Amino acid sequence: LATLRTYLFEVWDRFPTCASGADFDSGRSGGNPVKLWHFGRHTAKQLSSVKGAPKALIAKLPVFHQHGLSRVFCTGIDLDRLSTNLYFRLHENKQRSSEDVVALLQDLGVKVPADEEMRRYIAGPGTIAVTFRWDSMNCERVACYIVSPTEVSPP
Question: Are the C-beta atoms of residues 90 and 67 closer than 8 Å to each other?
Answer without folding.
Answer: no
